[in-house]
Structure formats: C-alpha cells, structure tokens
C-alpha cells in the first residue's frame, strides 16, 4: 500500500527531486561567489606563486624590524640598499651580526627629523599668516633641530673603504638554460632574469664568494641563496627546491648551491639576480654569452 501511494504521487516526487537539485546548484553558486583565491607556499619549496621577486619600498618609518633568520645582507637586498651603507647607518661592524626585533635603519634619521621640523615650521607659518598677519613667525635654526650623530657612509668608489677589494675576474652561468624573463629597471618589478632548467638540476655559484644568506624569509623569493663575491657584487638565486649550502660557507665558481625549483606551476625555473653596490643590474650584461 505504501508503495502504491508513493507511485501514485510520482509527479510530486519528481518535482521534489527537481527542487533539491536547484537548491544544490544554488549553494555551489553562492559558495563560488564567496570564494577567494589564496596562494599558499608550494610544499617543501617555500616558493609563492602569487609573488614576483622584487625590491620592496622602504617603510614610512624608515626602519626595518629584524625577524628571526634574517641577515644584514638579506635586509639590504630586500630594499635594494648597499649593505655597507646600512651597516654604517646602524653602526654595525663586520661580521654584521644582528638580532631579532632589532631596528635596522634604512635612511638617515637626522634627515627625517629635519624634514619634519621644516614642514612643521612652514605649517605654523601658514597658520600665523591666517590668524594674525602681524604675529612674528618663529624661525627654526639648525641648532634647534636634533640631528643624529654624523654617520660616515662608505664611498662606493673608494678603495680604502673596501674590505674585500678582490675583483671578480670571471663570471659563469648559474645553469645553462633559456632566459624566459628578462631584466626590468622600471618600478619594483623583476630585478633579475628567469632561467628555464631541467628537473633536479644543480644551481651553481657564478663566481667565488661567501654565502651570506640561505633561507626563505624574503617573500617572493622562495628558498633563496645570496652569495657575496666582494664588497661590490652580490648574486642571488631564488625559487630553489632545496638549499645545499649554509651561511658563512665559502664557495668557488661552479660549486652547487641548491637544486632548481620553481614558482607555482612554472618549474623548473631559477630566478637570478646580480647586485652592484646594492643596486640591481642586468645579469645579461655581466654574464658571458651562452
């Protein structure tokens, strides 16, 4: 009897099934509208598919707060600064030891204070002219401005300030492959080149030097290795699958630094940069022709 009644109301049953299907489709539609793409780091690589390697702008505060794992070299590299200038601004001597939560100034503090006092004086002067034209506007003399103790910043071309003046006599490629993205000097976009490689290929040092950073603390670079060749040149190797060297390790040209990784689904790929006095330069103008 129950079966007969159910069959006699088959039309109602079909309508109910139809409504259920529409409810399910509606739920998927709503969830799709509310869906937001979140780019997580690729497993075991530290690479971020949402970020391109770039130079970060200096914070408005003028300083960077040190996080665990960072080095003076990686901080200077992040903001496109010469590590010698950053060290001098913060009175940090070789071997440039820094500590978590330490403030690392990226700009001369005195100039910030002076500019602030000057702008405040101009605003006060403007208000004085509006309220009472006869009221004298207080002037700000240099002695009234508290400036930081003078900092001697190393001259980039002075040989007396170079601790490692040994020139890079020859360069070699970090790996042999096609350059799929070139150098750009506009804005804060790519400050290096992207090189296609083979899966499992070794990323090699382009010249003799010392590893000054090996980690994944710089967003947009994944597993990154930075090698200091002398007081002028640094080279950087990003998006690695695995790092094979440690900080303060001396390497020779051609020594393996890491295993090639990639960025998101674009792999195997190496992002490579050269910095001269802290500034990004086009690697293709320095590396030999392949």
Structure, described:
With 290 residues, the chain is an alpha+beta fold. It is 23% helix and 22% strand. It is built from five helices and twelve strands. The strands form two sheets. Strands 3, 4, 5, 6, 7, 8, 9, 10, 11 and 12 form a ten-stranded antiparallel β-sheet that branches. Strand 10 (256-263) and strand 11 form a beta hairpin. It is globular, with a radius of gyration of 29 Å. It starts with a helix and ends in a 9-residue tail after the last strand. The model is unreliable at 1-13, 26-51 and 112-162 (pLDDT under 50).
Q: What gross morphology would you assign?
A: globular
Q: Structural class, from helix and strand content?
A: alpha+beta
Q: What level of helicity do the residues show?
A: 10-25%
End-to-end separation in angstroms reads: 85 Å
How would you characterize the largest beta sheet? 10 strands, antiparallel
């Amino acid at each position: 009897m129950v079966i007969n009644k159910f069959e006699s109301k088959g039309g109602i049953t079909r309508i109910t099934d139809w409504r259920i299907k529409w409810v399910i489709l509606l739920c998927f539609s709503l969830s799709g509208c509310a869906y937001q793409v979140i780019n997580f780091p690729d497993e075991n690589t530290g690479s971020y598919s949402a970020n391109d390697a770039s130079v970060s702008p200096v914070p408005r505060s003028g300083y960077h707060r040190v996080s665990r794992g960072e080095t003076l070299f990686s901080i200077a590299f992040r903001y496109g600064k010469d590590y010698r200038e950053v060290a001098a601004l913060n009175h940090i001597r070789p071997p440039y030891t820094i500590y978590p939560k330490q403030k690392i100034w990226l700009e001369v503090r005195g100039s910030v204070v002076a500019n602030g006092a000057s702008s405040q004086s101009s605003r006060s002067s403007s208000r004085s002219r509006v309220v009472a034209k006869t009221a004298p506007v207080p002037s700000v003399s240099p002695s009234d401005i508290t400036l930081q103790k003078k900092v001697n910043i190393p001259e980039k071309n002075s040989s007396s300030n170079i601790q490692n003046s040994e020139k890079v006599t020859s360069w070699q490629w970090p790996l042999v492959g096609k350059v799929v993205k070139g150098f750009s000097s506009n804005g804060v976009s790519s400050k290096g080149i992207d090189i296609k490689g083979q899966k499992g290929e070794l990323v090699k040092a382009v010249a003799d030097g010392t590893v000054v950073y090996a980690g994944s603390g710089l967003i947009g670079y994944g597993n990154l290795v930075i090698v200091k060749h002398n007081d002028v040149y640094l080279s950087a190797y990003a998006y690695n699958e695995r790092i094979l060297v440690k900080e303060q390790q001396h390497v020779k040209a051609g020594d393996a630094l890491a295993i090639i990784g990639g960025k998101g689904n674009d792999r195997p790929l190496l992002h490579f940069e050269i910095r001269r006095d802290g500034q990004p330069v086009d690697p293709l103008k320095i590396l030999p022709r392949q």
